[in-house]
Amino acid sequence: MAERHLFGTDGVRGLANEDLTPAMAFDLARAAGENREGHVVVGRDTRRSGSMLAAALMSGFNSVGIDTVDVGVIPVGAVSRFVRDTGAIFGVMISASHNPAPDNGIKFFGANGTKLADADEAVIEGRFLAGEPWLRGIGPKIGIQTVMSDAIERYVETISRPGQFEMHGVEFVADAANGAAFLAAPALFERVGAIVEFVNVDPDGMNINEGCGATHPERVAHSAAGRVGLSFDGDADRLIAVDEDGVVADGDVIMAIFARWMKERGRLENDTVVATVMSNLGFRKAMESLGINVIETAVGDRYVLEAMRTSHAVVGGEQSGHVLLEDRATGDGLRTALRLMEVMASTGKELRELRTVMSAYPQVLTNVTVRDKGFERNEAVVAAIAEGERLLGNRGRLLVRPSGTEPFIRVMVEAPTESEAEEIAAAVAKTVEAQLG
Known about the structure:
single chain; alpha/beta; Alpha-D-Glucose-1,6-Bisphosphate, Chain A, domain 3; 7-stranded mixed β-sheet; globular
């Protein structure tokens, strides 16, 4: 992987107007757009800082002769689609996804609608760090800004077109996380005739992800009361569902449901799915029992996509709720929700029955705040990990990795019992904190 200073696993991210400033957004756009021709699609979520950063970013592109199309507050999946549909050279989503409102981020998408490869991000970063002199457009060579005023309508029409969704009176509750889906989700579900009650569709610029959305599925579970719950995150690339009994169906469960459904219909290309190292051991065992091969990648939907393209897989994703389907472009929580509705409608089964395709191992995930993420260089941490692995043997898994977006070391343990998983995770986390915290 190319060494980078600005780009993490999901673009450039930081505290808005401190780590991620308008000047940085302006220069990143110039670095990306210099010596290019064409236009760029720019979307954002509902954060207070979004319009500020969008204005700076679009001005940066315009200054080097690149036109920009502002699609406003919209799910990230729409930005990916508009890049492909309009022939843009880039798409940019201004969002920090599931992070709290004071943070923000800049995600670049290539002309094929996928997040940029590490090498492409490294090129942009190299130009950014090199700084001036920049080429400047003069007169007719200055880019112009336009607004796609019907962006939500176009997006909804596009993703709802392929399916026939007859829900037969089944009711849902959807949590838009006061984020990018707050307008698009109601428009979409109304179009397909689903009966949906919406919560957290009143953004004020600072309440995005605040005790709601995909990182807090208990919120929609509380509201659902016997109905299926659908929770999106800040930029709506994730979906976490809740079944009729209030039990969470995470990305692993949703992928397992899709994989079985598609295999039964002869639509699962090469009988293969792609998942990350964070997917539950129960997911792997379920796929094995169904005769489905699992390709494992590093954490990050870009790595899932790379493997899907190589293997021609049509289902992939992450436990966190990023689910990727046939277009192999990017996670789109609204499209994932439509596919889940399609499975329920076509099988006549409730989600609580569909989810029995897999039984998850007890899993404990602990985030340890650290000053230094280089745990592999610390002998005490390495020894603690080795001891945890010895105790688990082949009965479970221990995974320790740095967060790509936050100052955390993540310790994940799967074991036959929750108490054993908690005990081993606590021991490793204690050592990490003592050595690196």
